[in-house]
Amino acid sequence: MANDESAETLAGVGEFAVIDRLVGQRTQPAAVTVGPGDDAAVVAAGDGRTVVSTDMLVEGRHFRLDWSAPEDVGRKAIAQNAADIEAMGATPTAFVVAFGAPAETSADDALALADGMWQEAGRFGAGIVGGDLVSAPQWVISVTVLGDLAGRSPVLRSGARVGDTVAVVGSLGRSAAGYFLWHNGIDAFDELRRRHLVPEPPYGQGRAAADGGATSMTDVSDGLIADLGHIADASGVGISVSTAALAADHDALSDAAAAAGADAWGWVLGGGEDHALVATFSGAPPAGWRPIGTVLDGPPRVLVDGDTWRGNAGWQSFA
Amino acid sequence: MANDESAETLAGVGEFAVIDRLVGQRTQPAAVTVGPGDDAAVVAAGDGRTVVSTDMLVEGRHFRLDWSAPEDVGRKAIAQNAADIEAMGATPTAFVVAFGAPAETSADDALALADGMWQEAGRFGAGIVGGDLVSAPQWVISVTVLGDLAGRSPVLRSGARVGDTVAVVGSLGRSAAGYFLWHNGIDAFDELRRRHLVPEPPYGQGRAAADGGATSMTDVSDGLIADLGHIADASGVGISVSTAALAADHDALSDAAAAAGADAWGWVLGGGEDHALVATFSGAPPAGWRPIGTVLDGPPRVLVDGDTWRGNAGWQSFA
User: pLDDT by residue (tens digit) across A231-240?
Assistant: First the structure.
């Protein structure tokens, strides 16, 4: 190779040339009036409101580059942010991404990260409209997502009412199972290990829940019981969940749990990062949603089969 | 003290309790329909568009905690993002902030960071509407800002036309001078050292420039010549700057330059991070803007007193 190897690192290629590669050849959605390349982007906000949320992923804490390909990291970063918008009953429309990485990072890896982001955002017609590229001791990816309620009222965590049905859509426990398998070097159950690297939120179901009369909603990022606890706290209600209604989730993980000597219920009830949606409905949940419990009188608490859950209390950032 | 000292760290207080402290007692602006505490925030976008930009600041790279108080870091992070919105001719309305920090970080320092952010955002009536708090090996702060064009057309970098007047508002070279003083341990010129820690963008002047017919605009984040280069490239024009028109900026730094054995012109023409605004106008610039040059025929280039600038080419992330 005649080329200097350093030319293929972020430092060798240079910030502005890397950015040119990152934003080149991308087709922005119609909602984007001004895309990357100026001081800021301009995005349509059709109903006069913007829904906004942000998440930061730190290498070694939220992902490992010996487990995840850069594309996987990009897909995960977009998916988990998009799920926050879904959980409001809105549709994600645009993302901005700040990426910190060491100077010796390969420019190809940075491009692959961006490719994964565009691939995931493309699943619901959104684009990456802007970003920042900086030097950092390890990879740090900070994504902010904008969403469109299209005239709907936002579905908050605080709207659950006594007697509502609790329902879920999307997978539970897969990411936690996958993490356990990766962490313990169990080289099987590829689909579960894959789900830990790239979650699959039920895109479009947040909007469906809002249209279907959801009274409260959140996405399962910390763990089902922990996230239902957020709804219980915000709404001032109790929530009762039935394991019988979650048998299918448990059964999907039982082989892996047996092979790994773990408890599948811990994954189903305590595992986060699948970004399923959980909501409460005064009537019947929309098609595809699985009823798993009911809303009780206060005080705020979450009961499993009538009892306090004593397993994993969910993800904590500084634990 | 009877309290366990560890209780005052992020790990001791815990993620959710820290977030409660961070968002408690804050008054959100009227544009914020849903504030912190749910999966996402909802912000008014009055004219059906949202302006959005993001910047990441990494400890040791963009700030040093032995130079800056946490409040200063918060103010800087908000100021530099707000300047990107000003540079489009818009007004910053809302911010989301992702904050990564070691578990042993003091909760008081995290609160002081947030206080600085609220203080700076309050200067133009904006609020922090959401965020993320995660564990990281060093402080990483990623800010995304939303802005409101209030019906105006965004002022892009690409609109400069031959014969336009180039004008600037806000300070030049102060942050670079301050950095040089800090870096060389020169314990004088407090105001310049202060300006390096907390820039003072000319809030409101981006909107004034748009209303005053600005044909192109950017903020001085990389350095005057480098940022004018971005306008020259995007507009396909040359830009000529006169040092005579910048004499006041030079003179304000000459004592510090003499004491430090440095070149004040390097700071004025090459120093970034003051977040002044520079724009082009087909007519007279608005009140408070200083004419500093003219727009020439292409090719894209920036001339200083008719010649190529051979000094500091501006900030590069991986240099």
Answer: 999 999 999 9
